[in-house]
């Protein structure tokens, strides 16, 4: 209906997989729908072609090319959220794929709490909004992010995907669970990504 009426397909995404209570994990797994699997099940060639730019594969190809493109200008801002000990000359890349605070978006809860985005738990908040105004604790934000970055840095420096890491430390706050669980899968997938880019060069170059 939306495509016929407005000529656009609505954007969809998966449920957030982090912060699920252990006693409800099985119930969550039953209701969870994989975006990758959903796109793989499309058997309408025209629909698949119209959605190809928003497919998980195309997004992964684009992210890979973006992260390995040297013409990026986002390093100076990162210094505000990265400790002095971690800004040594031998550290060339900001660890993980974490968004810098306020660089992309924020999420405001019904109680007025400000969070990095809508896909994480409530462990980290940037401040609050109320009738009196907006209250943001900049020093607390900096301290939290620097602390998390320092925890990741030793592993990130020896990781082969440091320039193309999808891990968000705010989501992975419980102790590198996501990083450890998917790293082996990611490394196996690099060859898949390169093959996909080679087969679809006209889409990206």
TrEMBL record:
CDD domains: SPASM. Pfam families: SPASM (PF13186). InterPro entries: 4Fe4S-binding_SPASM_dom (IPR023885). Residues 102-159 form the 4Fe4S-binding SPASM domain. This is 4Fe4S-binding SPASM domain-containing protein.
């Amino acid at each position: 209906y939306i495509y016929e009426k407005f000529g656009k397909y609505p954007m969809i995404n998966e449920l957030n997989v982090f912060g699920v209570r252990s006693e409800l994990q099985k119930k969550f797994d039953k209701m969870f729908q994989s975006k990758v699997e959903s796109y793989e099940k499309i058997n309408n060639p025209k629909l698949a072609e119209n959605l190809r730019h928003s497919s998980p594969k195309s997004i992964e190809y684009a992210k890979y090319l973006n992260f390995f493109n040297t013409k990026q200008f986002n390093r100076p801002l990162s210094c505000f959220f990265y400790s002095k000990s971690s800004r040594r000359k031998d550290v060339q890349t900001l660890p993980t794929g974490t968004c810098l605070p306020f660089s992309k978006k924020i999420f405001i809860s019904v109680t007025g709490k400000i969070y990095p985005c809508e896909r994480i738990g409530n462990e980290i908040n940037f401040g609050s909004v109320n009738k009196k105004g907006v209250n943001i604790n900049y020093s607390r934000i900096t301290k939290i992010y620097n602390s998390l970055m320092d925890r990741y840095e030793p592993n990130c420096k020896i990781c082969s995907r440091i320039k193309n890491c999808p891990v968000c430390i705010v989501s992975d706050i419980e102790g590198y669970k996501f990083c450890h669980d998917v790293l082996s899968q990611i490394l196996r997938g690099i060859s898949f990504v390169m093959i996909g880019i080679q087969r679809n060069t006209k889409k990206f170059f």
